[in-house]
């Protein structure tokens, strides 16, 4: 089968996690902001946030006192810019990637000085009540969209901001049109999978998915702790000879 992933993760965590899976189709990263070819190790495309929208987003973060990472793709490399690290989660996140991936994190004095056409993503991780006012302020910015959800594993809340042209749904549309897929089956567990479900031919939720995702699915399978996705594929997808 043609198999890939659509994830909120960046390429730096996707590579080690999927190394043994034999990914053979372009993957969607950072909630559909980028399409990446793992076999060729290169970005196919990335959707940038308009510069004026970036400046408004940065103003909101600075005025609220909430720290974030601002991501850019430059010369084929993803780098994260930040002014200061204020939470344990942010520090752990940055240190792990500095040690593994040739320091893709860059401290800057003022993010406003870095706002340009290369910016594709903002992300902040904190308690819900801290991020909620930021989310509500960002909601009115033209050219930007966001997802706001609780992480299934850490139970911290994520606010992720990107171009309003970027989504897992739009990524699936482009996969279908550019690569000629007749049928796309999607598996999901969290709220950021709902837009992807809207474009899938078959929508499947794992048992430990959010209730909203299970409600939007065509069927619910075993949890990821029970190898639900792998078991479903083994039983329902026949190998196509090439």
Secondary-structure map:
Elements: H1 11-18, E1 27-29, E2 34-37, E3 42-46, H2 51-64, E4 69-74, E5 77-82, H3 88-100, E6 105-107, E7 119-126, H4 128-138, E8 144-150, E9 157-163, H5 168-179, E10 185-188, H6 194-199, E11 202-206, H7 211-216, E12 219-221, H8 228-236
Parallel strand pairs: 5-6, 10-11, 11-12
Antiparallel strand pairs: 1-2, 2-3, 4-5, 4-7, 7-9, 8-9
Description:
It is a single chain. With 242 residues, this protein is of the alpha/beta class. Helix content is 33%, strand content 25%. The protein has helices at residues 11-18, 51-64, 88-100, 128-138, 168-179, 194-199, 211-216, 228-236; strands at residues 27-29, 34-37, 42-46, 69-74, 77-82, 105-107, 119-126, 144-150, 157-163, 185-188, 202-206, 219-221. The chain has a 6-stranded mixed beta sheet, with helices on both faces. A 3-stranded antiparallel beta sheet has the order 1-2-3, with helices on one face. The termini are close together. The model has no long low-confidence stretch (mean pLDDT 89).
């Amino acid at each position: 089968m043609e198999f890939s992933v659509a994830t909120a993760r960046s390429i730096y965590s996707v590579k080690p996690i999927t190394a043994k899976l034999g990914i053979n189709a372009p993957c969607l990263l950072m909630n559909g902001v980028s399409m990446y070819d793992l076999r060729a190790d290169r970005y196919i495309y990335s959707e940038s946030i308009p510069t004026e929208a970036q400046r408004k987003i940065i103003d909101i973060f600075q005025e609220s006192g909430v720290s974030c990472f601002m991501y850019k793709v430059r010369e084929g490399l993803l780098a994260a810019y930040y002014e200061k690290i204020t939470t344990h989660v942010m520090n752990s996140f940055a240190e792990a990637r500095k040690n593994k991936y040739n320091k893709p994190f860059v401290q800057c004095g003022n993010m406003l000085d870095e706002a340009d056409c290369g910016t594709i993503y903002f992300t902040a991780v904190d308690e819900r009540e801290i991020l909620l006012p930021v989310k509500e302020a960002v909601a009115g910015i033209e050219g930007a969209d966001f997802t706001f959800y609780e992480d299934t594993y850490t139970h911290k809340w994520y606010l992720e901001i990107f171009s309003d042209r970027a989504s897992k749904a739009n990524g699936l549309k482009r996969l279908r049109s550019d690569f000629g897929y007749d049928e796309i089956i999607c598996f999901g567990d969290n709220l950021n999978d709902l837009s992807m479900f809207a474009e899938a031919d078959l929508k499947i939720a794992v048992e430990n998915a959010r209730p909203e995702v299970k409600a939007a699915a065509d069927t619910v399978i075993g949890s990821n702790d029970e190898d639900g996705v792998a078991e479903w594929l083994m039983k329902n997808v026949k190998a196509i000879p090439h």
